[in-house]
Amino acid sequence: MTTGFTLWFTGLSGAGKSTISEIVERELRALGRKVEVLDGDVVRTHLSKGLGFSKEDRDTNIRRIGWVCEVLSRNDVIAIAAAISPYRAVRDEVRERHGGRFIEIFIDVPLEVAIERDVKGLYKKALAGEIKGFTGVDDPYEPPLDPELIIHTDQETPQASAARILTALRQLGYL
Amino acid sequence: MTTGFTLWFTGLSGAGKSTISEIVERELRALGRKVEVLDGDVVRTHLSKGLGFSKEDRDTNIRRIGWVCEVLSRNDVIAIAAAISPYRAVRDEVRERHGGRFIEIFIDVPLEVAIERDVKGLYKKALAGEIKGFTGVDDPYEPPLDPELIIHTDQETPQASAARILTALRQLGYL
Question: How many domains does chain B have?
Answer without folding.
Answer: 1
